[in-house]
Structure formats: C-alpha cells, structure tokens
Amino acid sequence: MPYAEKRTKKQSEKDEKPAHLKTMRLEKIIMQISALSGLAIGAMEFIMFLLTGSQAILIDGLYDWMGVVIILSYVFIQPLLYRPVSEKTPYGYAQIETVFVLVKCSILICMTVYIIFDNVKILFGSGGGNQVDSGFIARFEFAVFVICLIAWLILRYFSRRIDAPMISAEMMEWRLDVYLTFGSFVGFSVVPLLQRLGIFFIAENIDQIIAVIIALFMVISPIRMFVRAIREIILLAPDSGMVERIKKTAEELAEPYPYEITFFDIVETGRKIWISLYIRSINGVFYIEEIRRFQRELQNELEPEYGDIDIDLIPEIDPEPPEEEKKTENLRTQIESVRQERQKERDR
Fold first, then answer.
1. CA–CA dist 267, 94 (Å, integer)
2. Which of 41, 191, 231, 309 could, after both became Cys, cross-link 134 (CB 3.0–4.6 A)?
3. What is this structure's pTM?
4. Angle at 29 between CA 72 and CA 26, to 5 degrees
C-alpha cells in the first residue's frame, strides 16, 4: 500500500474514533438515566404497594424493576456492539442487542399475561375486588406521572441522535409509563363520581380494572418488538415498507448508470442494516469508478434515514454461451501464436 494511502487511512480512522466514542458515551448516559429513574420510581411503587396493596401499582413497579435489571445487564455487553466485523463475526455483535430485546419482551409478555389472569380472577372471584384508598393512590399516580414525564423528556432529548433497538425499547417503555400513569391518575380520581352515579361495581373494583387496562396497553408494544427481534435473529428481510423504500431509492439512483439491479439482499441485525445489490452491466462492461460513485450516492441517500448501513454492489457476471466461449478460446490461441512468433523474431 502506498505511503499516502496508508496515511489517509490512518487519518480517517483517527477522525472516526472520537465520533464512535461519543455515540457510545451518549448511549451509556441514556441507559444510566433510565436505570436510575426506573430504580427510584420502582422503589416508590414498591413502598406504595406495601401501604395500599394496589395491584395497579404492583404491575407498574414490576415493569420498572424488570427494566432496571435488563438495563444493568445490557451496560456490560454494550462495548461489544461497537466492535468491527471480522471473519469470525461477519455480522459483528449486533445480534446480541437483538437477543436482549427478545429476552426483555418475552419477560414483559409473560408477566403481563399472568397479571391479567390474576386480576380477572380477583375481579370475578367470590371475595370481590381489592378495596383501596382511591384518593390517596390518585395523588401518588399524579406524582409518578410528573416524574415519568420529566424522565421521558430528558431521555428523548439525549436519544435524538442515536438509532438503536435497545434505546427505542427504552423510549417505548417511558412513553407508555407517561400515558398509563396519567390514565391511572384519572381512573382513581373518578371513583367518587362513579359512586355518586351508582356505578358501584366499577368503583369497588377500580384497582383490578385499571391493572388489566394497563397490562393490555403494555403488552402491545412488546409483542411487536418480539416479532421484529425474531425476524432479525433468523435474518429475514425487514418490514416491507423499508424494503420498498430502499428498492425505490436504489433503482432511481441507478438510472443514469449502464447497470441493471437484478436482486436485492437486505438484512437488519440490531442497529445495523446490510444491503447487497447484484448488478448486471447493460453493455457488458463494469467500470469500477462508476460502481464506487453509485455506492457513495446510495450510502449518502439512505444513511440519514436508516443510520448505520453497509452497502455492497456485487457485479453479476453471466457465463458465456458455448459458441461465444469457443470463439474466445480461438482468439486467445491466435494471440498466443502471434506473441510467440514475435518473440522468436526478437531472439534472432
């Protein structure tokens, strides 16, 4: 490798390193804020559950504590996600993050199904619903709502420049927490109104009803992320919307070039997207500079929307038919004979 090229390569690696470390540091800050906030809210909800016995508060606290445990585990494997690909790990360590999302969603789904079943059993059991101080819990839920809203706004500010499945999962949880704590505050606040209206069944069982509603809302996003994680682990193509946008962009950028895209191979693993485009030359000739320029244009077009993306353009070379192959072989023989005759003349 020429000295100038080596120097350029070293300089580019040096320039990329600070950005890489900055992203990693920012992601760590987001996870720390999320873990500390979740830990504080989880502790508050656990104490409140002991004081009131509220099932709605218990389910919220369980979600928060489970989230903290998974975040702390994730912090230890985070440096692996920034390691480059190698022959041993052709897709890097991106799928470790997908596994974490899969485990997290599986636990949340199992917990939610159990809580729904348990609260429905209490609701329609012979002992009746769980009697709680709705006014006291309403004030507590409003305080938790304010804390969740502040935490979500802070995390949203820091996460704007990071596109990662685990960060998306955290933001999804905090957004749900904001909505559901506010819904719980409203639900427990209207109990006196329900009693005045004579709707005693809902008023007396408001704790179980709110717990089931929270669980039903909570389970939707984990199921979606679980399905997406399964697709990523078995290396299926991403959702059809993403595939169609990538195809349309690539085909539009390919129009000025003498190449035809014959096949799209698109895989998403964690926070990285791998795109392989198989191209056929219209005139039978491949120009390296044109292929590089097409690759750069496609990279610049897709990166702002999809973040970390790897694009390979693979020339598709059709085998020659037997007649053409025979002609080529005859031509090679003629060229070789002419070369040998000229060599003999020079030797004389």
1. 12
2. 191
3. 0.60
4. 125
* β-sheet bridge partners, residue 281: 259
Do 52 and 180 lie in one domain? The reply is yes
Count of structural domains, the chain: 2
Contacts of 311 (CB under 8 A, 6+ apart): 275, 276, 277, 295, 298, 299, 302
Q: Is the pLDDT of residue 331 over 80?
A: no
Within a domain: 333: no
Domain that holds residue 308: 246-317
Q: Give the torsion through C-alpha atoms of 228, 232, 238, 239, to 10 deg.
A: -10
Per-residue pLDDT at 150:
92
CA–CA separation, 6 vs 226, rounded Å?
44
Q: How far apart are alpha carbons 63 and 177 in whole angstroms?
A: 10
CB-based contact 94:272 (threshold 8 Å): yes
Q: Are 129 and 123 in contact (CB under 8 A)?
A: yes
- 291: domain CATH number is 3.30.70.1350
**Residue 94 sits in the same domain as residue 154:** yes
- Spatial neighbors of 291 by CB under 8 A, at least 6 apart, are 259, 279, 313, 315
Please check whether residue 113 is in contact with residue 227, taking contact to mean a CB–CB distance below 8 angstroms: no
Q: State the chain's mean pLDDT as an integer.
A: 76
Tell me the backbone φ, ψ of residue 286, rounded to 5 degrees: -110, 125
Token pair recorded at residue 91: 């897709």
In the predicted model, is pLDDT for residue 17 greater than 60?
no
Q: Which helix (H) or strand (E) holds 51?
A: helix 3-52
User: Which residues, including other chains, have CB under 8 Å from residue 103's CB and lie 6 or more apart?
Assistant: 70
